[in-house]
From TrEMBL, chains A, B:
InterPro entries: AB_hydrolase_fold (IPR029058), Esterase-like (IPR000801), S-formylglutathione_hydrol (IPR014186). It holds the Pfam family Esterase. This is S-formylglutathione hydrolase. One of its GO terms (molecular function) is hydrolase activity.
Length: 284, 284
């Protein structure tokens, strides 16, 4: 059955298109928007796709407007899809009160606790419903990779870890790698999942690695002047978990860089080339 | 005498820095902000500068966040300075009522009509006061080029035409080339300059070319699906004026592209390389 989508805008970009759509999400039970970059190569046939998951307070638009990714994506022939960061328009009690929980802060998990469990199934949305929808409407092949920033870096890592073999490659900028052990994650997980911390480890990259969920290699970039580095991001926890389990982690620490999209824009081309090497590996 | 500036932010970007400052403008009689990109080469000594003038409703931030120019500017060794688009914080009667006049819409001219003449001297600001201020505080050489978008494309063209020989090169995206003959320009010029249309031609690129102000070559990019093309931008007027006066105009019309920063981002690297060829010409 074809799910309908409504085009909000279509803008030429680097020989391809940046387009935005709205649609009714069944798994989130609300209307959602997403953005897609279609490279010029998509006019000739299906192209691989990079799923980009954004961070706290972001929407589907930040990456498309600020990351400067389209030039390299057009060169490589990669589509990029940017979901929104939470359900929208649901107005649950307290949903809009803080920047790090509720709207704009879905944490890419499936909530178990009421009232969040009515709508907050962002994991199912970004790994199942949206990919099926996008493939119905656009020339996107089965080849896919995933990346993201901050909360979206957490999202990218857990999606890849929870579905070994699905994504050709995974990378992240400034990811929350161990949400069970940082204020952002503890606040969100306790409200979305409840107080039983045993339930949390299913949505924590470090815990998933320690539980031998997957041995997929990872590329992670982290700014050393990131204001959230010590308290929230803790890349050393990821380094340690990967070391223990023998998972190949390329963790690059960049002196002077912060948490902003200027950091993402500075290194996004490296990530796109990394993903392209994996996505096109069998064609080389 | 050193004018003081206050740093609002400093962010690593492509091996260089994106910084924002506020300062007191004497010629505008108000506080202003500007943005600067300093490429890595600026750590070793003075670098040439590109002045970027933004369009209606923009601030000093749009270009830095959305144009994706830093990667190429870092490669070429160009600084980029982005002024704001009008005086700020002055609250003149009617100043904030429309998007195409007053705040966010200074049109890079020196207003003659009260009350605008108290503050709206954006031409003097972007060609004199700000350049002097920037050179006091940053390693910027005397070599300079100028570019801009829409109202800022108009600004770039008139700055270069009014000061022959000053800018090594000039370019524009989707410029208002003939403000005397379009609704945006007629509204702004009549209010800033008064009803005497003879006064307007000093601030109109086509009129300046026809008056033989300068024969400097120009690079202009225009999207053919630009929603303002027919009514406001009229690149054929520029083409005609240049043809009459034998001015070299490279006007590129891009099928499918609109008026957005996705258009600017798609072709900004060409402009940066064009300016670098002129800025570094005597070093080749």
């Amino acid at each position: 059955m074809t799910q309908s989508i409504e085009q909000l805008s279509a803008t030429r970009s680097h020989g391809g298109w940046v387009k935005r759509f709205s649609h009714r999400s069944q798994v989130l039970d609300c209307d959602m928007t997403f953005g897609i970059f279609l490279p010029p190569q998509a006019e000739a046939g299906p192209v691989p796709v990079l799923w980009w998951l954004s961070g706290l307070t972001c929407t589907d638009e930040n990456f498309m407007q600020k990351a400067g990714a389209q030039k390299m994506a057009a060169k490589l022939g990669l589509a990029i899809v940017c979901p929104d960061t939470s359900p929208r328009g649901t107005d649950l009690p307290g949903e809009h009160e803080s920047y790090d929980f509720g709207s704009g802060a879905g944490f890419y998990l499936n909530a178990k606790r009421s009232p969040w469990s009515q709508h907050y199934h962002m994991y199912d949305y970004v790994t199942s419903e949206l990919p099926a929808l996008v493939r119905e409407h656009f020339p996107i092949s089965e080849k896919e990779a995933i990346s993201g920033h901050s909360m979206g870096g957490h999202g990218a890592l857990i999606c890849a870890l929870k579905q070994p073999g699905r994504y050709a490659s995974v990378s992240a900028f400034s990811p929350i790698v161990n949400p069970m052990d940082c204020p952002w994650g503890e606040k969100a997980f306790s409200r979305y999942l409840g107080d039983e911390r045993g339930e949390w480890s299913d949505w924590d990259a470090c815990e998933l690695i320690l539980a031998k969920a997957s041995k997929q290699p990872m590329l992670v970039d982290q700014g050393e002047d990131d204001q959230f580095l010590e308290e929230q991001l803790k890349p050393d926890h990821l380094e340690k978990a990967c070391h223990i389990q023998g998972v190949s982690l390329k963790l690059r620490r960049h002196a002077g860089y912060d948490h902003s999209y200027f950091f993402v824009a500075s290194f996004i081309d490296d990530h796109l080339e990394y993903h392209a090497r994996h996505l096109f590996a069998d064609q080389a």
